[in-house]
Amino acid sequence: MASDTGLLHMVYFWMREDGEPGDADKLAAGCKKHLRSIPGVLWLEVGFPAKKTRDVVDNTYGVALLMEFNDNDAQEKYQEHPDHLKFIAECSHLWSRVQVYDTVVSQS
Description:
Number of strands: 4
Largest sheet: 4 strands, antiparallel
Shape: globular
Mean pLDDT: 93
CATH architecture: 2-Layer Sandwich
Strand content: 25-35%
CATH class: Alpha Beta
Low-confidence stretches: none
Helix content: 25-40%
Number of helices: 3
C-alpha cells in the first residue's frame, strides 16, 4: 500500500460465461490503460484469483482490481472521471457481475 491511511477500493469482476478465452487478460489491460493515471489514484494493482482450495476462499471471480485513494472524496471524483467512464464503456461487455468493497484504512 502507498500510505498508512486512505480508502481501499477493491473491485471483483466475474467474466461472462459466453466470453472468449483471453477476456480476463483484456479486462486487466483495460483497467491499467484507463484507470491508472486518473488523478487521485495513489496505487493500482490488477490480478487474477489464486487457485486456493480452502473453504473461506472465493476464487470464482476472473479479475481483481485493487486501488488506493487518499479519501472518499478522491474516490468519488474517480467515479465520474471521463477515463473511468470510458473504461466502463469499452470493457463492460467482458464481465457479467461486479462486486465492490470500499474500506477505510485505520489510522492507528
